[in-house]
Amino acid sequence: MIQYKGYGICGESMQPTINRPKPIAPPRSRPLRKGLRFLAIVGAIALSIFLFDRALWPNRYLLAPWVFGDAIYQVQTAEKVVALTFDDGPDPRYTEQIGQILADAGAPSTFFVMGRHVQQHPELVQTLMAQGHELGNHTWSHPSLKTKSPATIRDELESTDQLLRDLGYTQPIPFRSPYGHSWFTLPHVLKQRDQANILWTVQMNDWKPEEPDVMMALLAPKFGNGAIVLMHDGDGESEGADRSNTVTLVQMILDKYLAEGYRFVTVSELLTQGKPIRRWS
Ligand SMILES: [Zn+2]
Fold it and tell me: Using CA atoms, how far apart are residues 237 and 268, in angstroms rounded to an integer?
């Protein structure tokens, strides 16, 4: 049946309106679709985070060396050798004591010192040398190097190296960046210096400071052939940090793992024992 309804504008003739049966409304699936879309988005985000966390970020030094540079976490070796490393010193309260405990156990280690602290306590560097330890460069003033210019980075590294040379250190000086940070400019400078960034297999929360027993439990699952263990004999950010738990921890590590047949060596010695591992695991 045709009905005429209203008038058109501008002289248009009346338009017939056809009375059609009302369409049947589709089932109410909108909330369901919305829910599925939400779940898909959450799932995609979770998957991205998972892939980033497990696959991309741990492999960043392999996947994008032009961004992150060259870094070493561990050494692949069949030998029961481990490198103990100490950052942020020297500190007059702890460095000599830690160095002596290690020397008494026949465990030469690597001390990544800060130039500023070496300048304040040059005698401690000479003590470390006499105890048979290796000296590493941990910059002059401990800045994050992520946003620093190549000129600033060169200055941080070269001034520290030079001071160690002035104090009579003649061995190669490995490098470890503060906080492990490495981003664009540092890789560029390290490449020019033909150096890798020596990172770590496991870090002890001695900077918190954590209790020695807790740190031993933290160490156990990661401890093994070719491991690089990070501890702190000083503080990069402020003076006066308590490192007495580190002293206790060093003795506990030596007691436990020397009895298990492990040998402790410097980082440079460790690197001669096998293939460097550049993937964080
Ligand atoms: Zn540090």
Answer: 27
For a pLDDT cut of 70, what percent of the chain falls above it?
90
Mean pLDDT, rounded, of the chain? 90
Tell me whether residue 87 is one of the annotated catalytic residues.
yes
Considering 138, 232, 233, 235, which one is annotated as catalytic?
A: 232
pLDDT tens digits, 121-168: 999 999 999 999 999 999 999 999 999 999 999 999 999 999 999 999
- Position 141 in a domain: no
User: How far apart are the CA of 98 and the centre of ligand 1, in A?
Assistant: 17
Q: Which residues surround ligand 1, an ion (CB under 5 A)?
A: 87-88, 178, 236
Residue 18 dihedral angles phi and psi, to the nearest 5°? -90, 130
**Residue 244's CATH number:** 3.20.20.370
> How many angstroms does the Cα of residue 143 sit away from the middle of ligand 1?
9
Cα of 232 to ligand 1 centre, how many Å? Answer: 8
Q: How many domains does the chain fold into? A: 1
Angle at 144 between CA 270 and CA 87, to 5 degrees: 40
- Tokens in use for 202? 């496991």
